[in-house]
């Protein structure tokens, strides 16, 4: 299986552990697509929530999905720097319809100075009990929180100094 094709526009579908749709991003341009890695770019894309409510993203973003890690990373390009929103999630799968993953509530927000905060631990605990996350999943998710924090501290992957700039430049070539 190969990944989405570079230059094509795809949707991103986020699900909950129960299998219910959580959120859909309407359009993301694939900048790199392999079986294990998808890097995409979007700007002012429509997002539809599970309750049907819609909103539009405010800034350009570079999205990083990995087929082996239980997280994905969105670098949002703002006037005062790059902010990252990291979702603890299942590894992605891609089909003809979209990039798909299960969102496991825990998030890490990273600021331009690379300080960060872990978010939504209460939501995670609530859903872990309601949806009966298996213990093995719980352990995998917390281990991936640690991996993600290590990446942030080491400036690895999308947190590397030029990563977002390089991929944003590539994204702009598709918009012209």
Automatic annotation (TrEMBL):
<dbReference type="InterPro" id="IPR007295">
    <property type="entry name" value="DUF402"/>
</dbReference>
<feature type="active site" description="Proton donor">
    <location>
        <position position="23"/>
    </location>
</feature>
<feature type="binding site">
    <location>
        <position position="123"/>
    </location>
    <ligand>
        <name>Mg(2+) 2</name>
    </ligand>
</feature>
<feature type="binding site">
    <location>
        <position position="105"/>
    </location>
    <ligand>
        <name>Mg(2+) 2</name>
    </ligand>
</feature>
<dbReference type="InterPro" id="IPR016882">
    <property type="entry name" value="SA1684"/>
</dbReference>
<keyword id="KW-0460">Magnesium</keyword>
<comment type="similarity">
    <text>Belongs to the Ntdp family.</text>
</comment>
<dbReference type="InterPro" id="IPR035930">
    <property type="entry name" value="FomD-like_sf"/>
</dbReference>
<keyword id="KW-0378">Hydrolase</keyword>
<dbReference type="InterPro" id="IPR050212">
    <property type="entry name" value="Ntdp-like"/>
</dbReference>
<feature type="domain" description="DUF402">
    <location>
        <begin position="19"/>
        <end position="156"/>
    </location>
</feature>
<feature type="binding site">
    <location>
        <position position="103"/>
    </location>
    <ligand>
        <name>Mg(2+) 1</name>
    </ligand>
</feature>
<feature type="binding site">
    <location>
        <position position="120"/>
    </location>
    <ligand>
        <name>Mg(2+) 2</name>
    </ligand>
</feature>
<comment type="function">
    <text>Has nucleoside phosphatase activity towards nucleoside triphosphates and nucleoside diphosphates.</text>
</comment>
<feature type="binding site">
    <location>
        <position position="87"/>
    </location>
    <ligand>
        <name>Mg(2+) 1</name>
    </ligand>
</feature>
<protein>
    <recommendedName>
        <fullName>Nucleoside triphosphate/diphosphate phosphatase</fullName>
        <ecNumber>3.6.1.15</ecNumber>
        <ecNumber>3.6.1.6</ecNumber>
    </recommendedName>
</protein>
<feature type="binding site">
    <location>
        <position position="107"/>
    </location>
    <ligand>
        <name>Mg(2+) 1</name>
    </ligand>
</feature>
<keyword id="KW-0479">Metal-binding</keyword>
<feature type="binding site">
    <location>
        <position position="107"/>
    </location>
    <ligand>
        <name>Mg(2+) 2</name>
    </ligand>
</feature>
<dbReference type="Pfam" id="PF04167">
    <property type="entry name" value="DUF402"/>
</dbReference>
């Amino acid at each position: 299986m190969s990944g989405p094709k570079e230059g094509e526009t795809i949707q991103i579908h986020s699900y909950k552990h129960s299998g219910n749709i959580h959120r859909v991003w309407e359009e993301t341009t694939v900048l790199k697509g392999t079986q294990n890695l998808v890097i995409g770019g979007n700007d002012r894309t429509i997002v539809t929530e599970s309750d049907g409510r819609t909103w539009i993203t405010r800034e350009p973003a570079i999205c990083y999905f990995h087929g082996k890690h239980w997280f994905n990373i969105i670098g949002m390009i703002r006037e005062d720097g790059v902010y990252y929103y990291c979702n603890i999630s299942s590894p992605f799968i891609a089909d003809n319809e979209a990039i798909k993953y299960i969102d496991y509530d825990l998030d890490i927000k990273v600021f331009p100075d690379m300080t960060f905060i872990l978010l939504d631990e209460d939501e995670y605990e609530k859903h872990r009990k309601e949806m009966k996350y298996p213990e093995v999943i719980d352990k995998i998710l917390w281990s991936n929180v640690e991996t993600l924090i290590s990446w942030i501290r080491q400036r690895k992957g999308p947190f590397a100094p030029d990563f977002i700039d390089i991929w944003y430049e590539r994204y702009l070539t598709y918009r012209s």
